[in-house]
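dumping this here before i forget
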Amino acid sequence: MKQLTWVLGLAVLAGCAPEPQVEQNMAAQISYPVTERGEVVDEYFGTQVADPYRWLEDDRSSATEAWVKAQNQVTFSYLEQIPLRANIKQRLTELWNYERSSAPFKEGDYTYFYRNNGLQNQSVLYRTDAAGNTEVFLDPNSFSEDGTTSLADISFSRDGSIAAYAISEGGSDWRKIIVIDVATKEQLEPTLVDVKFSGISWYGNEGFYYSSYDKPDGSELSAMTDQHKLYYHKLGTAQADDPVVFGASEAEKHRYVSAQVTDDDRYLLIYAAVSTSGNKLFLRDLSQPDSALVSVLDHTDSDTSLLDNRGSTLYLVTNLQAPNKRVVTVDAANPSADNWVDLIAEQAQVLSASTGAGYIFAEYMVDAIAMVKQYDYDGQFIRDIELPGVGSVGGFSAKKDAEQVYYSFANYSTPTTIYSFAPNSGESSVYEASKAQFDSSAYESKQVFYRSKDGTKVPMIITHKKGLKLDGRNPTMLYGYGGFNISLTPSFSVANAVWLELGGVYAVPNIRGGGEYGKAWHRAGTQQQKQNVFDDFIAAAEYLIAENYTSSERLALRGGSNGGLLVGAVMTQRPDLMRVALPAVGVLDMLRYHTFTAGAGWAYDYGTANDSAEMFAYLKGYSPVHNVKAGVSYPATMITTGDHDDRVVPAHSFKFAAELQANNNGAWPQLIRIETNAGHGAGTPISKTIEQWADIYGFTLFNMGITE
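structure:
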C-alpha cells in the first residue's frame, strides 16, 4: 500500500502519471449486454415520449433478473482488470479495522451503547448494569448469515423494562418489530410485520404507536398508497387487532403519519404530511379518556415538531414565519399558532434544537459549520458552548434528570470523537477518542465561496493533504446532494480518508436545495428552480478547475439518491466537465419517479409530469434518462444501485445504464454495478461497503489515467 500511496501522492503531483490510453482501449473492447427495446409510448399534454425500457421496471421478472446478471458480469470483468483495486481494498480494510463506540444512553436499570470491533458487518448493542457488568444486549450480526439484516430502530418502554426493536432485511424500508423482555432478552409476542416509515413511540409500559401502509399487491417496488396509517399496539394483543389511531378516513389521508408521546405520557402528538416538506400537527390529551384530537396546525406550510413539554406547556420547533426556525411555547389547552410565544427567536443561522439534563441546546449552522448555544427552559441564555474545532457536532440529547450530556465532533479530516459535557459548569472532556489509524495533522480543510451562474454565492469545503501543489493534476472527488432541505456538514468517513491518503482532493459544496441557509435556500432548488442546483454544482467544478486544484481529466462527480440525480443531470448537460461520473441509487427517470413506492411524496422538491404542461417540459428537460444523446462522449460512468432498493427503485438506474450503453461512442466505459440483496444503503454490511468503495475508487483512478 505504501507503493500505491507514493504513486498517487507523488507521481500524480509531479505530473508523471501516464496518459489514459489503457482504459480507452478497455472501454472500446467492452461488449455490453443487448437491452431489448420495447414499444411503450406515453403521452403528456399532447407530447409523445417513448419509454423503450419500461420492462426493466418489473424488478422480479426473469428477464430483468437475467439482465442484472449480464450487466454485473460485464462490470466485474472490467473491474477485475484494474491493478489498483486490490491494494485499495486492502487499505480500506486496514483503516476500517478499528474499535468504535457510540455515546452511552440510559434506559431503566441499564446504560446502553453501540460498539463495533472494527470489521463487524453491523454494530452491536451492549449494556452495562449498576454494578459495572457489561454484556451484549443485541447483536445484529446474528440476525442473518450474510450480515444484510440490520437493526433499524429500538425504543424502550417508559421504565426501560421492555424493548421494541425494528429490523430491516436486505436494506428494505419495510420493517419488522420484535418486542422483548429487557431482563431476559426473550421475545414476548409474535413479530409485527409490514411496518414502513415508522417510529416506535411508547405509551408507558402498555404499548406503542407505529405507522404503515397497506402493502401493495405485486412487486415490492409498486407505488405506495398515499394513505399512511398510525396504529396503536397494546402488548399481548394480535397485530391484526391493532386499532387505526389516525389515517383511516379520507379526511385523514396523508402520505406520512407519525406519533410522539411526551415523556410524562400526558400528550400524544400526531404529525401528518403529504410530502417530505411541511406537516400538520395534532394533539391529544392522554390523561383525559376519549379526549378529542385537537389541531395545532391544520396546514403543511411549515415544518413544526415538539421539542419537549413541561406540564401543559409545549415547546415547539418551527419554521412557520421563521425560515431559519425558532423555538416557541404554547399552552396545550389552546395550542393554535395564534397563541405561540417566542422562547428562542429566529436568528440569521439555521436552528436545530435538542434537550438534555433540563436544558435546551440550540445548534446553528454558520456556513455549514456548527455553533451551539445553551438555554434553560425559560429561554434564558446560559452560554456559548466551546467546541473542539471547526466541524460538525451530534448529540446534546439526554433525559431530563441526566447529569451528563454527550456529543460527537468530527470534520472531513478528523475522526469522530465523543465528548462528555457537564451542563452546569459548561466543561467538555473527551469521553472516547477515536482509535482510527489516520493522521489528521497531515491534512487540511479550507472553506471557499464561489459564484454560481446567476451570481449566488455558494460555500464549499475543500480537503486535501497539506502542501498540495495546485498544478491541475490532482484527482478530485466533487460530492453533492442539493435537495430535500438536507444540509451537508463536515463529517469523517473512512472511505473519504482513504481517498485523501491516496493524494485525492475531496470537495463538498453546499448547493441550493439543501438546508444550510434555511427554507429559502431549500426552495431555491425545488421544482422549476431545480436547475439552480445543477448550476451550483457545475460552478463548483469550474471553480476547482480554474483554481488549479484539478482539471476535467482528473475530476469525478459523485452523489447518491437525490445526489444521484444531481450527477446524472450534470453529466448529461456538461459531459465535458468531468472524466468520471458516479451516480448512486439515483432518481433518474423524472417523468415516472412518482409512480414507484413512496416517490409521489417527493413532489414538493420535484413537481410531477402530470402537474402541468410546463412542469412536464421542465422535468423532461433535465431528466437524465431522457437526455442521453447519440454521438456524445459521456464521461466514464459507473452507476451503482441495489436490486432491493424500495425507496429509489433500481429501474431508474437500469434505464439510465441502458440509454448510456445504447448511445455509447466507445470512448469511455458506461457500466452499472448492481448490489444483490441490498437496498438504498442504510444497514449495508461493512464487508459489502468496503468492496463497493474499492470498486468505485479503482474505477475512478483508472479512468483518470492513474495505474499502478
